Amino acid sequence: MKVLVTFPVDEKFKNIGNEILGKENIIWYPNLEPAEILLVRDNNFPYSDDVKFIQTITAGVDHINFSRIKKTTIVASNAGAYSLSVAEHALALLLSAAKSIVKKDFEIKNGIFNPEETILLDGKILLIIGYGGIGSKFARLAKSFNMRIIAIGRSYKDSYADEFYSLDKLKDLVPKADFILISIPINRQSYGIIDKNILELSKKRAIWVNVARAEILKREDLVPFLKQRKDVVYSTDVWWDEPNVKVPILENLIVTPHTAGGRSGEVMENAFREAFMNIKRFMESDKPRNIVNIEETIWIDRSSLGV
Fold first, then answer.
1. pLDDT tens digits, one per residue of 120-139
2. Cis (ω within 30 of 0) for the bond into 243?
3. Are residue 144 and residue 94 in the same domain, yes or no?
4. Residues 203 and 101 in one domain
5. Are residues 41 and 136 in the same domain?
6. Is the pTM for the entire model greater than 0.90?
7. Residues 243-253, buried b or exposed e (16+ Cβ, 10 A)?
8. How many Å apart are CA 210 and CA 195, to the nearest integer?
9. Maximum distance among all alpha carbons in the chain?
10. Any idea what DSSP says for residue 154?
11. Is there a single domain that holds both residue 37 and residue 179?
12. How far is it, in rounded angstroms, from Cα 121 to Cα 30?
């Protein structure tokens, strides 16, 4: 079977693919010859009914329009390939909020010397919404701060989380949490699940961290809530309408430009290696990892961003 890589790839990543799959088995962009296996980055790729397997280089798949793909085609995400980088970024977002780093940096650069109290992480309760690769790696980091960890997930369990629950317990758990990490994949169940009613359950001085997708929150509810509850901080790596974002200037809002996955070569090397290894599993008739349940997916047009 031939593998078509449908987007431009640096030579060092091509070497990884050639090493794992064999140079003779890969068709590299811009050559778009027919192939039974595709490696894709965005929604702009050639598709025919002869395609048997699609592997995404991305962890999320909400930018893929599955309505154009035959139901018998197997699709696999690259979930887990970026987890450590995202977890580290999430910790940076949490620390920035808890220690008022962004606010105090701005003030002191503008001649304002105004020390204020900050928040300890030690002993606090952390709620992780979405306990997969990112959530579990963040839990490992959080344990070094002696946090008590409550996890919401489907099935994955480990020794880092102290309590495990399903998503239907969200309303009961939010009021208990000092910090809340959103790391749940976006799908039909999670889209817009955090609305005004959930946000208003936030504990005093709670910190929300989002490294998943903006659309997990209801857009029309978030900003009014932050304006009303100035004690609560929302620290996020994702926003609506990327890259043409319009972010309100609020002291309790911290936003980074979707960089949690990392832009470094070492992160992308791992991502390509994981993707090519998963393709190899398919080619060798083994079950690939991270098979997407197409019935649960939701499509969000991210053509302007490309991821």
1. 999 999 999 999 999 999 99
2. yes
3. yes
4. yes
5. no
6. yes
7. eeeeeeeeebb
8. 14
9. 65
10. S
11. no
12. 49
